[in-house]
Design brief:
alpha/beta; Lambda Exonuclease, Chain A; Nucleotidyltransferase, domain 5; 3 domains; five-stranded mixed sheet; 20 helices; 16 strands; 19% strand; globular; binds iron/sulfur cluster
């Protein structure tokens, strides 16, 4: 039994990296940033789906004894807090049946995937440790096929399932079977967690967990990558052996061992850039890519919000709502025209009409990461507003992705340090760019827009609108600067 009380989030952090768990404990956890918009109380919606009329509802900080007592009299327990051997869990739903207590997990996602079912196994471990006979185990999750028409239909919004799914969205095991198979010895885990807090901070050990899906916030503190020179071999993109090579004394990109690089076009460009004094440009490839562009060149950028529960007609769970676009149109004679559309709430039709009116009928439409963002957003609008589908999809036919020359190793400047976001590249240009803006990141723009969409009263709406227009406008303008740089690197003029 642990000497302390932990939550599942502590366990998942410790399992990812004991040093991260320890640093979080000593320095305080990072504030939570909500990337996904969720205005509704998802538990209340799920209660409607489950038909819960009367229940015990747990509260933050409850003595676990309260939940144990509620088991005596209630048919349903919602968000009840249980504790066993120092691990405290919040259980979404428990339902009394003749066989014991059916357990419902609640997932604010489309399909339950289980590469790491720690949350589920730990909850089950605590319940069974408390002597609660757990019957059927289900997961209530959002239904990706539900399309909102009028008022929210909570019955159609959720699916109650008893399977996990793989990356291809195929069933990959019954929930109960997977949980039993992957059950951990949490007593041992909790004791190890105690030890991590009682002993000196461990030295960092570099692993895939440091940069996995989300880069660890202590990465720079652990490994000091930011102090590496621009040409450091640690910036060799996608290299499995870059740290091994550095430890052997191959400090720079130019020193990379040909036998231990993956040989991607990006890596070639990065190594060549270091050998050529800092900049590599494949002029022939750039000229070929640029020769596909047709004037006028329209650079376009979208901003959007993603909602867990569809707030408006025609939207599905996890759909996005486009709220802003900015475009810069550059004519052959060099003249430039800048346009921005911004509104709040559901203005998809107005946005689409304005977009179709603003984009010139001829020429290339250029976006940074067009394939992964703008083209998808246009496809979604075409589906939601079928009367405009033909005109919208015709835009995608003219779309060019400005990220491609960077992704495909046509150009690299060692000051990019293995990154090729629009902001990184813009920071190399002789232009103040984003530096003078109040909003500098896409998620900052979304957070600001939320004040408008929620009709917040204690904010300066005019100022937010101006800042949002400046930020999105900077993205489309930055593309003109970066594209001009590509032309110059190819020995051409835009
Ligand atoms: S960077 Fe890696 S070693 Fe350092 S705390 Fe994070 S996960 Fe652990």
């Amino acid at each position: 039994m642990s000497a302390r009380v932990y939550h599942i989030s502590d366990v998942t952090r410790w399992l990812r990296c004991p040093r991260m768990f320890r640093l979080d404990h000593d320095l305080g956890k990072a504030p939570y940033q909500q990337f996904l918009r969720m205005d509704e109380k998802i538990t209340d919606l799920a209660m409607e789906k489950l038909g819960i009329q009367s229940c015990f509802i747990g509260q933050r900080g409850d003595d676990p004894e309260k939940a144990m007592q509620a088991l005596e009299s209630e048919e349903w327990l919602v968000k009840a807090r249980f504790e066993y051997h120092g691990l405290r869990v919040k259980v979404p739903f428990l339902h009394r049946t003749e066989h014991g207590w059916d357990l419902y997990f609640l997932l604010v996602g489309l399909l339950p995937k289980a590469p790491d079912p720690t949350f589920y196994t730990a909850t089950l471990w605590v319940l069974e440790g408390c002597g609660i006979p757990v019957g059927r185990i289900s997961i209530i999750h959002l239904n990706g096929d539900y399309v909102r028409q009028g008022a929210l239909d909570t019955d159609a919004l959720f699916v109650i399932g008893d399977h996990f799914y793989n990356e291809r969205s195929h069933p990959a095991g019954e929930v109960e079977t997977v949980l039993r198979d992957q059950m951990r010895d949490y007593d041992a885990v909790l004791k190890d967690m105690d030890r991590t807090l009682q002993t000196p901070l461990a030295e960092p050990v570099r692993s895939g967990k440091c940069t996995g899906r989300v880069k660890c916030r202590f990465f720079d503190a652990c490994f000091g990558e930011d102090r590496e020179p621009d040409a450091s071999i640690v910036h060799l993109t996608g290299s499995r052996y870059r740290y091994d090579m550095r430890d052997e004394g191959r400090l720079y990109l130019r020193d990379a061992d040909p036998a231990r690089i993956e040989g991607t076009a990006q890596q070639y460009a990065e190594i060549m850039a270091d050998r050529m004094g800092g900049l590599y440009a494949d002029k022939a490839a750039l000229r070929s890519w640029l020769s596909d562009l047709e004037y006028p060149l329209t650079f376009i950028d979208f901003e959007w919000e993603r909602f867990a529960v569809p707030p408006y007609e025609g939207m599905r769970p996890y759909d996005v709502l486009l709220f802003e676009y900015a475009m810069d149109t550059v004519q052959k004679d060099g003249s430039r025209e800048h346009k921005v559309f911004l509104d709040v709430h559901d203005d998809r039709e107005a946005l689409v009409r304005s977009l179709l009116a603003d984009i010139p009928e001829q020429g290339s439409i250029i976006a940074y990461n067009a394939v992964g963002a703008e083209m998808i957003r246009i496809g979604e609008l075409a589906e939601q507003l079928p009367e405009y589908a033909g005109d919208l999809l015709a835009l995608n036919e003219r779309m060019k992705d400005l990220q491609q020359p960077f992704e495909n190793g046509m150009i690299y400047d060692i000051r990019m340090r293995g990154q090729w976001s629009l902001k990184t590249i813009m920071s190399l240009m002789d232009d103040p760019g984003y530096r003078e803006l109040d909003i500098r990141h896409g998620m900052d723009a979304v957070y600001q827009w939320r004040y408008l969409d929620r009709d917040a009263e204690d904010v300066d709406r005019e100022r937010i609108i101006e800042e949002l227009k400046a930020y999105c406008g900077m993205d489309s303008y930055a593309m003109t600067v970066v594209c001009r740089w590509l032309y110059e690197a190819a020995g051409l003029t835009m």
